[in-house]
Design brief:
This protein is an all-alpha fold. Helices cover 62% and strands 0% of the residues.
């Protein structure tokens, strides 16, 4: 069963995207530990999938001028 985790990141979704990138980069260089690399890839995929469900911020007229 999957657990739900709430992350509060100062940089928001952009910071979460950096975490995904870091996990994938780390996984790509860990050829000596394939199980660990696969775990990191799975975590990156889960975070990325969660980011896909976040609605973009709604901009009001005053923010677009």
């Amino acid at each position: 069963m999957a657990s739900v985790l709430l992350l509060q990141l100062a940089g928001g979704a952009a910071e979460a995207s950096e975490i995904v990138e870091a996990l994938l980069t780390a996984a790509s260089v860990r050829s000596d530990e394939p199980a660990l690399a696969e775990r990191w890839r799975r975590m990156a995929d889960d975070i990325s999938s969660s980011l896909d469900h976040i609605r973009p911020p709604h901009l009001t007229q005053e923010h677009t001028e």
